[in-house]
Design goal:
Number of helices: 11
CATH architecture of the largest domain: 3-Layer(aba) Sandwich
Largest sheet: 6 strands, parallel
Shape: globular
Distance between the termini: 5 Å
CATH class of the largest domain: Alpha Beta
Order of helices and strands: EHHHHHHEHEHEHEHEH
Strand order of the largest sheet: 3-2-1-4-5-6
CATH topology of the largest domain: Rossmann fold
Strand content: 5-15%
Helix content: 40-55%
């Protein structure tokens, strides 16, 4: 029985994929000497940490590292005003409410910042649905990833058994984390990673809507 749902935030519950791409095209992409990147190109290239994405798009990794400290604040300056207009995916609030009603705990696991996520949760009136948010303290660390370590520590400290946990995300990173920790995994299409790449990573479930996650949880009972 699944007792904990670990949600990725960006592109999974928060429908900001177009905002991310638009911000990247006006900030880090030209800084790295790349031409305009389409959504299809980004979905084919995206990986974590973000240096892998830009390697896939043809950027020399040493050049990226040299620019990394400059890129993050410029990207976030472009991204945050766009994110302020974004909404959650269709069905997110209803799904979270139903999970709450059946006492299924939810947390957020993200490479974004705590400040940025809590701002959006407050704006969208979703704070009450989450027991915790595991994310980065600042934009200076958002080009790296400590998601697996943060989640592993959280599960141990809160006595959550792996077989009672599902991780949901729009990238292959969540699938890798779930597999490494022995969790159920559900990929969700329509975010920053293509459906074909998600399928190739072989999650336990591959869904196209947030509501389908509720069905997976119910079927585990």
């Amino acid at each position: 029985m699944i007792k904990l749902v670990v949600w990725d935030w960006n592109g999974t519950l928060f429908d900001d994929t177009h905002a991310v791409l638009r911000a990247a095209n006006s900030s880090e992409i030209p800084m790295l000497g790349l031409p305009h990147v389409t959504l299809e190109q980004m979905r084919s290239a995206h990986d974590v940490p973000i240096i892998k994405t830009y390697q896939n798009l043809g950027v020399d990794p040493d050049f990226f590292r040299a620019k990394s400290a400059e890129i993050s604040p410029v990207f976030h300056k472009a991204y945050e005003p766009l994110a302020a207009k974004a909404r959650t995916r269709r069905g997110s609030r209803a799904t979270l409410q139903k999970l709450n009603d059946q006492n299924t705990k939810c947390i957020i696991l993200s490479n974004h910042t705590m400040e940025g996520i809590y701002f959006q949760l407050s704006r969208l009136r979703l704070v009450r649905y989450f027991a915790d948010v595991l994310a980065n303290d600042s934009t200076n660390t958002s080009h790296h990833t400590g998601k697996q370590h943060r989640l592993e520590t959280y599960l141990e400290e809160n006595n959550h058994r792996p077989e009672e946990v599902i991780i949901v995300g729009d990238t292959t990173e969540e699938i890798r984390i779930g597999r490494a920790l022995g969790l159920h995994t559900s990929a969700i299409s329509g975010g920053i990673c293509s459906r074909d790449r998600l399928a190739a990573a072989k999650p336990d479930h591959l869904v196209s809507s947030v509501e389908k996650v509720l069905s997976i949880v119910k079927e585990s009972a």
